[in-house]
Amino acid sequence: MISVEEYKRQAKMCMRCTFCKFIDLNWVTSLRFSRQCPIDTRYAFNLYSPHGLLHSALEELDGKLEFTPRLMDALYKCTLCGACDARCKRNLDIEVLQVIEKLRARCVEQGKGPMPEHKVIANNIRKTRNEYGEPHANRQNWLTTSIKPAPKADMVYFVGCNAAYRQPKLAQATAKILGRTGTKFILLDDEWCDGNLVTATGQVELARELAEHNVKEIQKSGAKTVITSSAECYKSLKVDYPKLLGKSTEDMPYTALHITEYLDQLMKDGKLEFKKGVSMKVTYHDPCNLGRLSEPWQEWEPNYVRVIPVGKVWRRGDRGIYDPPRNILKSISGIELVEMERNRSNAWCAGSCGGTAEAFPDFALWTAGERLEEALATGAEAIVTCSPEAKEILSRAAKEKKADMAVYDITEIILKAI
Amino acid sequence: MSLPKEAYKALQSIVGPEWVSDDPAIVEADHVAGGAHGETDIKRPACSIHPQTAEEVQEIIRVCNRYMLPFSATTTNPPPGMERENVVFIDLKRMRKLEIDEENLYAIVEPGVSFAALQGELFKRSLVTFVPMCGGNVSVLANSLNVGEGAISYRYGDRGYRRVLGAEWVTAEGEMLRLGSRAAANDYFWGEGPGPDLRGLMASANLESPTTRGICTKLGIRVFPFVSERLEPTGDAPVTTLQLPSNRFKYYNFVFPTKEAAINAIYEVGKCEIGLFVMTVPPWFFAMARARGSAEVLTGAAGFWDYWDNHEAPLIRENPNQTSCRALLYGIGSDKRLAYEEKVLMDICKEFGATFARASRRTTDETHFMSADAIVSNLAGGRFTSVILFESLDHAYKCADIVNTNTKKHVPPVLDDYGTTNWFLPFEMCHICKLECLRFASVEDAGELALLMDDCHKDFVDVGAYPVRPAAERYGPKWENYPEKTRKFKKLLDPNNLAPPIS
């Protein structure tokens, strides 16, 4: 987490140019889908915008603004999708997201945040090691008799709370895919919640505790690679854990892989071919946590020469996991992949990130509805994603809008084809 | 700050309680919209309100007049008139309707429509507009009434307000004025229309602040025919581009041995009526583009300073008068036309001793159509000022020298730019030239930038320069005492003195 000095410096850099509110301008093709910040698009007040939050951060730091209910409303409705961060770094290179994250952490430090729903989840995690308060002993109940993790392997499958407790079919699909590609994997003896939500909501101490535990478990397992099919867990393992532990991604004792990265590599190595066709016109939704938020973390001690930072590795959102899921979909015969107007680092958030879905379900559903409308505009019959949370909320949006649009996690499609 | 309860209730009844707020966090964030933190003397507004229709805007202004509340309106730019207490901040970004008349070549925009959105919609119809250099994210309506120029103004016309057609304008008393052909029917195709042409009263950025004397809620603007081929967006930020069809467009970068040769060559390009634009390119832009647009960026300062200190600066010291230019040739109608333009450009470059240079590694030359790189030349963490003038091309060079001289006196520079951060963009086939002099400082030295501006204006008055938003007290006496005249208009249109500018 950035120092207070750096936090102030970054927030002060903002000149309210508003580039943060739009997708990369070269990619704008319509009025309808030109904007990128969900809170700005829905609420319009400047407080509900990246630059509004940056300014509030400075005012709060200077003691001129308190964490009022309205400020907290804006702060926690922000989905932390990182679109603003990627756009700002098109031109100005401000660490917008880090400032908003720090503002949330300050809100928690002062006893004001997070939102009540987030506190319930944190308590669930403290007691049962999962977000839902389900018995910890049931974490591996998703396993079926046909799925047999290896006793020992170089790869550990990190399941995540959602797939373990809410969408076991996704965990089963992942395990079956690994099995069918001949990949040996183990499960952690004691997997805890990855902590994506508690990290995002500014509950840094708990987040660090979870990171320390899971990293220790991974080390104990002897595995060098951690694979997951959850975009949220992927970001935790690859970005948040090193960040919370004061390290860089490359210094972690494991390599985090999303299942699409792994399968894409198998395809490139000629070790995987999809033999069954799936006849479907689909569009792909880039989950924020797998796309622009998933770039490796690199620790950096602030060092400036004539206002330009030295030795800093920028995370601009362009090095996220964008191609592997697309390569996989394109390689399955019968699948026609059509892109939404806002794709890759320009993708509109589905609304499930940052704790928004838990505290503000109506707004999160509106955000998902916007994404669904965009998917419908492509003429696709299904929307495919790589996040159990995104799948959940997009499915709800489709149901609410009575839209003729199926929603799949990519593992479900792969399982049909493999 | 105290807004009468009755006034607040009246505002709520117009837009609904969701779209008006006097919460400190809301008004705090609004009052700095479009500006930098803590650098200007502005006050929190009494409330923020978001109308969605012109009728709602009218109602809001009437409430302001009833309770004598000053108001200020904006979408993306700094709201003017925020020095006053109790301002009702009217944010127009929910007004986002857009219509395009393809046959008659005009678009009707509400304040919340951005240039990028309009351009995206126009491209689908083989039409184009010129997007201002400050960025495609800004409001079409507001910018067209303000400075409103873009790179391709070279071919399609000068300042934005010259393409303004019919308009809906809510005066500072809440009366709806319909200008141009809009006065006769629900039609925006014609700007002049019956009766006196009042557009200049809205479009007076050259004189005072934008959004003067009321609020424009709908505007017709001219658009122009364009190629039918798709301009393909490619790449991920920060390196994205719009790929232009190669049979119809071609970029050339070239370097002239002297400033004089560059001026004369640019004049010649205009005389021959070739190109979609031609402009000078400050070496600073090259350096920033290289630092941001390649792997060098990963090394942060090292990439930039290495390039600037070891490559660009020695070249400038060696040849201080050398001038880099860029032109985009355009095969209007056919690829034969492109071939013709190339031949003409080659002849001109030969005559004036130009050498051709490779394009920047950042593949964003094409962003002139969206101005996606608008502020890439700024330094994150620094501040900049932009001295903008509209001049004849040869006179613009004299004005640039004034800025260079004053820069040495005032600004502790982030880097010694050797006077190379001046940017010349000819419009209307070189009839007029925009000169933009960007100057950079650290946040701590930002105050020096204001002093620099002040000194430049002192000298500009003497040489008869035409800056954007000149200081009224300096230029008034030389310019027919225009502040006095505008005050008369102000009294007529805003008797309660509620709209900016404040008189």
Question: How is this structure best described in words?
Answer:
The complex is a heterodimer of chains A (about 425) and B (about 500). With about 425 residues, chain A is an alpha/beta fold. Among the domains of chain A are: about 110 residues, Alpha-helical ferredoxin (Fumarate Reductase Iron-sulfur Protein, Chain B, domain 2), CATH 1.10.1060; about 140 residues, 3-Layer(aba) Sandwich (Rossmann fold). Helix content of chain A is about 45%, strand content about 10%. Chain A contains 18 helices and 9 strands. In chain A, β8, α17 and β9 form a beta-alpha-beta unit. In chain A, α1 packs across α6 and α9 packs across α18. The radius of gyration of chain A is 21 Å and the shape is globular. Chain A starts with a helix and ends with a helix. The mean pLDDT of chain A is about 95. Chain B folds into 3 domains: about 90 residues, Uridine Diphospho-n-acetylenolpyruvylglucosamine Reductase, domain 2, CATH 3.30.43.10; about 130 residues, Uridine Diphospho-n-acetylenolpyruvylglucosamine Reductase, domain 3, CATH 3.30.465; about 220 residues, 3-Layer(aba) Sandwich (Vanillyl-alcohol Oxidase, Chain A, domain 3). Chain B contains 15 helices and 20 strands. In chain B, the strands form 6 sheets. Chain B has a 5-stranded antiparallel β-sheet. Chain B has a 4-stranded mixed β-sheet with strand order 1-2-4-3, sandwiched between helices. In chain B, strands 15-16-14-17 form a 4-stranded antiparallel β-sheet. Chain B starts with a helix and ends in a 10-residue tail after the last helix. Classes of the chains: A alpha/beta (about 425), B alpha+beta (about 500). Chains A and B meet through α1, α3, α4, α5 and β5 of A and α2, α4 and α10 of B.
